[in-house]
Structure formats: structure tokens, C-alpha cells
Amino acid sequence: MGPVSFLHKDQKLSTWKGDLSKMTHLQAGLSPETIEKARLELNENPDVLHQDIQQVRDMIITRPDIGFLRTDDAFILRFLRARKFHQADAFRLLAQYFQYRQLNLDMFKNFKADDPGIKRALIDGFPGVLENRDHYGRKILLLFAANWDQSRNSFTDILRAILLSLEVLIEDPELQINGFILIIDWSNFSFKQASKLTPSILKLAIEGLQDSFPARFGGVHFVNQPWYIHALYTLIKPFLKDKTRKRIFLHGNNLNSLHQLIHPEFLPSEFGGTLPPYDMGTWARTLLGPDYSDENDYTHTSYNAMHVKHTSSNLERECSPKPMKRSQSVVEAGTLKHEEKGENENTQPLLALD
């Protein structure tokens, strides 16, 4: 191991300023810390950034069966970042991104927030998106599984809403580098609901997120999962890459293990955090803007800092949301639960979407 260098704060700033002098327009807006993180973790080099992008672009000719509908520098760059600047892997992901859309044309017809199916899913909180990022700069996405009303939202529309949300979020270069965290609360998720999670639709979701989208997922956290969610893992395991099996954490009702990975100050109270309860309308209002209307009165003002105007226009009857079920998570502040050997297995990482 080489020597470790401990630089004074002023020396670090000087080094960052030197890096900034070599920064291309594709890195404009990134903080010096994020630029350094991209260099260390993703092998991003501003000196050869345009060459890396062109090498990926030159590979497009090898796949005449795929319509590459977007090939600009900024778009290709997010695939390079998702695959740590391995050009062949980045191109493979780029090809799979467009191939997935070709093979699932119906999913991407009218692929925008005001599509009726996507709109219903967004209003019902699929997904939730926290305003603030965690201590690693990652965006935190939430799914409250019990809110899935299967008479109202198809699984496909929920997946479309998630993919659309990721498309919006991945436009932020900071998130291309820092990535995402997904927390799924399975409180009150019934066996009947789980029975609708068939292998085919789970495979569709895995292909869309693991294999075909340029996002870095630092972890997928299950909270309050029942036994049959454990059983679902055996269904999806054949569809997962070895690397993918490393970052789902099954916490059960032990939120202290969640807090060891995501600090409580970044989490709403449903997950034992110090923030107010999550406002289910936050992200829907962000994407829908004036088209958003909700018969429920959302009053959790701490999540209103996104400054999205909430208008009171009437929404179609079919889009009016039903009351949201809330998480039943409970945790004692500052107390680490010591588990028996069998219980401890529930918090081990099983898969990732990275």
C-alpha cells in the first residue's frame, strides 16, 4: 500500500482548483468534492472525457438492430459513469437501455407524468423521493408497498412511474456520480398483494432497473418485510447478477441496522428518522406541477421546500387517491438491537441494482 497523504484544507482546495482548470463543460456545475469522487471511484478523467465518450459512440455501428435515439455527449456520459468508465460495459448498458424500450413499446407510449396510469401511481406515492440527500450525496427513494391498490394501479404503471422518476433525477450530474438509495417498507403488505408479484413482472422490473438503466444504486433496503417477501427472493434470484445480490439489506423491524447505513437525520419518522412523516404528494407535485390536484390536504410543510406550486384544479375521479397507509416502523432512539444468530441473517445484503 502506498503512503497516505494528509493534505491541509487549503492544499485540498488548491488541488481541487487545479482539477477545475481541466474540467470540461460536461463537468460544469459539479462540486470539487464530486469531481474528485468521480476521479477516485469512477475513473473519470477530464483530460480524456471526450475520447471516452467517442469510443462508446463508435460502437453503435455494431448494433444496427437497435435504434439509438439519443447519442449526445451528456447522455452517453451517464452510461460511462454507471459503469465506471469501462467503455465496453457502458456501451452494453446503452444498447440494453434502448433495446428494453424497443421490446416493451407499450410501457413507453406517452411516457410522461400526465399519462393517466403514471399519474395515478405518482399521486399514490410511487415512488416517494426525499428532498435532501444522504451523507454520501445519494438521493433516497421510498416505496410504501402496502399503498399498492391493485384495483387502481397496475404493477407496470408503478414501474413506469419509477422509471420516469429516475429519468428526471438522472439528469442531475451529481446523482450520476453519487447514486441512489431505495427503501421499501413492507408494513401491512398482504399475502394477497404479494401473490400478484409474479416472476414475469419481477423479471420486467429487474431488467428495467438492473440491466437497462444508467443509475448507481448504493443499496436497496427492505423494512418490516413478512416471510413471504423472503420467499420472493428465491423467485427473482435466477434473474440477478452476482454483483446484484450484494446490496439488498433485509432489516425486518430492526431499524437500528438501517440507521447504521443511512443516518436518522436523513430519514422521515416512518423509518425512525428525525424528519417529519413523508408527504406522499411531494414528488407527484414536483413532476405534475399545475396538473397535480389531490383531495387530501397535505400539511407536512417541511417537505414543501421544493417550491412546487400546488393548484386546486379538479382531477379526474379515477385519479383521486385513496387514503395512504402508513408505516408501522418503531425504533428506540440510540438503542442498538442485539439479534440472535437467525435474526441477524435478515440484515445481510442480498442484492443490489448497480
- Strand/helix succession: HHHHHHEEHHEHHEHEHHH
Distance between the termini: 28 Å
Low-confidence stretches: 1-21, 295-354
**Which range does the strand content fall in?**
5-15%
Task: Provide a descriptive summary of the structure in words.
The chain has 354 residues and is α/β, with parallel strands linked by helices. It has 14 helices and five strands. Strands 1-2-3-4-5 form a five-stranded mixed β-sheet. Helix 1 (9-21) packs across helix 2, helix 3 packs across helix 4 (73-82) and helix 6 crosses helix 7. The longest helix has 17 residues, at 87-103. It is globular, with a radius of gyration of 21 Å. Residues 1-21 and 295-354 have low confidence and may be disordered. This is Clavesin-1. Residues 335-344 have a biased composition (Basic and acidic residues). Required for normal morphology of late endosomes and/or lysosomes in neurons. Binds phosphatidylinositol 3,5-bisphosphate (PtdIns(3,5)P2). Keywords: Cytoplasmic vesicle, Endosome, Golgi apparatus, Lipid-binding, Membrane. One of its GO terms (biological process) is lysosome organization.
Provide keyphrases for this structure:
disordered N terminus, alpha/beta, CRAL/TRIO_N_dom, about 350 residues, globular, phosphatidylinositol bisphosphate binding, 14 helices
Q: How do the helices and strands line up, and which of them pair or pack?
A:
Layout: H1 9-21, H2 32-42, H3 49-58, H4 73-82, H5 87-103, H6 116-123, E1 128-129, E2 139-144, H7 155-169, H8 173-178, E3 180-185, H9 191-194, H10 199-211, E4 217-223, H11 227-236, E5 248-250, H12 255-259, H13 282-288, H14 341-344
Parallel strand pairs: 2-3, 3-4, 4-5
Antiparallel strand pairs: 1-2
Helix pairs in contact: 1-2, 3-4, 3-5, 4-5, 6-7, 7-10
Function: Required for normal morphology of late endosomes and/or lysosomes in neurons. Binds phosphatidylinositol 3,5-bisphosphate (PtdIns(3,5)P2).
InterPro entries: CRAL-TRIO_dom, CRAL-TRIO_dom_sf, CRAL/TRIO_N_dom, CRAL/TRIO_N_dom_sf
Protein name: Clavesin-1
